[in-house]
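Today's session is about reading a structure prediction critically. Students often jump straight to the picture, but the first step is always the sequence itself: look for stretches that repeat, for charged clusters, for runs of hydrophobic residues. Only then move on to the predicted structure, which in these notes is written as discrete structure tokens rather than atom positions. Here is the chain we will use throughout the hour.
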Amino acid sequence: MSVTNHWLVQDHILLCVLDEISSVEEVLLWEREVIAILSQYPNQRVHLIYDARIAQQLPKLTVLGNLRINDYMYDNWQIVVGLNPVIKMIANVTGYVLKSRLKLTADMPEALAFLQHMDDALPDLKIAWQQFNSSNT
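Below is the predicted structure for this chain, in token form.
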């Protein structure tokens, strides 16, 4: 499995970069890691961005439908970046079934602009993205 979690904005936006998730065990391991992080912020908005632009393989829809992560999202947003047709279908169905606040975007600037609009407590996300990119290259 290759999912890497990074704070894009410390304590406010968790960026999950998805490369490949092929088994149920991998999904559940990743979910436990993210739930452990989210559990530290019970009264705070923590949004998740799933960067799936380079994802080669994702889990089956039945696995995604059984995740508990939505129990920890409250009124926070989950954004999927990277709209190949398979990811778009999976994200649309999963968001509908789980009744979660899910947004699909084609690229990171669109995702960040959406979050900036939806949560005015966030710092300037263009600057945060530039800083993240410069520290992770």
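Discussion point for the tutorial: The chain has a mean pLDDT of 82.
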